[in-house]
Amino acid sequence: MNLTVIDRKEACIKTDNKTLVVDTQKIPFHLIDTLLIVGRQQLSTADITLLAAHETAVILLSANFTQSALVTPTAPKNAELKLAQYRAAATDPLPVAKWLLTLKIKSHIAQLNNHNIAIDEAPLQEKIDAAEDLDTLLGLEGSFSRRYFGHYFTLFPKTLHKGKRSKRPPLDPLNAMLSWYYTLLYHIIAVRLIGFGFETGIGFLHRPFRSHMALASDLLELFRADINAYVYRIFADKVVTNGDFSKKRGVYLRYEGRKKLYKPFREFLSTLEPRIDAAISELRSRL
Questions:
Q1: Contact 173, 242 (CB under 8 A)
Q2: Answer CATH for 79-285 from 3.30.700.20, 1.20.120.920, 3.40.50.620, 3.40.50.300
Q3: What is the 3-state secondary structure (H, E, C) of 76-111?
Q4: Fewest C-beta atoms under 10 Å: which of 149, 227, 249, 268?
Q5: Count of CB atoms within 10 A of residue 110's CB?
Q6: pLDDT for residue 210 is more than 80
């Protein structure tokens, strides 16, 4: 995926024939699969529809990533897949939900193992296999997540966190980074799912709710451990520090901090892309 990011103060954005023009920089459409626009930027409806006509998805995020919108091409795609997804989600979501939760737990345990922290997987898997409803699975997922983060936060200096997961708003730099990367990948996975022809609002482990893209959250579970490991490296390498965060109704990355992260994020994303597509293909085969 060719991800183009625009996060500049008062950038001038427009299209010219088959080229995106950002201030004085020109980017041909064929080099853009997904356009990420962050902050208070302006893009005309004519420009957006031209990008959509060239099958370029546009992700719009507020500077603190708390508000978002997704613009994708409107051509209908793969109705048969959507019908299969609807049937599976409505009649028997447990097999897919168990597959998702199993992979999530495996990846998180493996990530902790890299730091010599061991969690016995076998009892957890037995409980997943024995679960007879989605509420039981969600209870197992919540319990495991609390246990996992209890270990994960010990990997970082206490100056970076308050010892537990916080979101909406994040209350410390570590939680701000986790939420920032989760939000980015959630929207990128949604774009890929739409490209395959899935309905993002219908999930298996996550229930549909308002504008939540439940299926994107489902697939995100498979890659959260990768993000957690990546965030560990970001802080260990001091790519960002406490000074790159602001504290106002929560803790968020400053503009200067975000600028440091986009290039390495694109490199990180390139390592995930084949696995994301493979996971989506596997999901399709399970319907």
A1: yes
A2: 1.20.120.920
A3: CCCHHHHHHHHHHHHHCCHHHHHHHHHHHHHHHHHH
A4: 249
A5: 13
A6: no
**Residue (of 227, 277, 276) closest to 108 by Cα position:** 227
Residue 228: predicted pLDDT:
98
- Tell me the C-alpha distance between 14 and 26, whole Å: 10
How would you class 218 by CB atoms within 10 Å of its CB: exposed for 0-12, middle for 13-18, buried for 19 or more?
A: buried
31 vs 33: CA distance, rounded Å: 7
Radius of gyration of the chain (CA): 20
Three-class secondary structure of residue 182 per DSSP: helix
Q: Which amino acid is at 35?
A: L
Q: Model pTM?
A: 0.93
Q: Could you say which architecture CATH assigns to the domain 3-71? A: Ribosomal Protein L15; Chain: K; domain 2 (3.100)
- Gap between the Cα atoms of 199 and 79, Å rounded: 10
Domain residue limits, the chain = 3-71, 79-285
* Interval 191-201 mean pLDDT: 93
Q: How many other β-carbons are positioned within 10 Å of the β-carbon of residue 150?
A: 12
Separation CA 16–CA 111 (nearest Å) = 46
Determine contact, residues 128/101, Cβ cutoff 8 Å. Answer: yes
Q: What is the pLDDT of residues 30-60, one digit of tens each?
A: 999 899 999 888 888 899 888 888 889 999 9
Amino acid symbol at 251 = V
Q: Mean pLDDT of all residues in the chain?
A: 93
Any bridge partners for residue 248, and if so which? none
Q: Tens digit of pLDDT for each residue in 170-191?
A: 999 999 999 999 999 999 999 9
AA letter at 238:
K
The two domains 3-71 and 79-285 share their CATH topology (first three levels equal): no
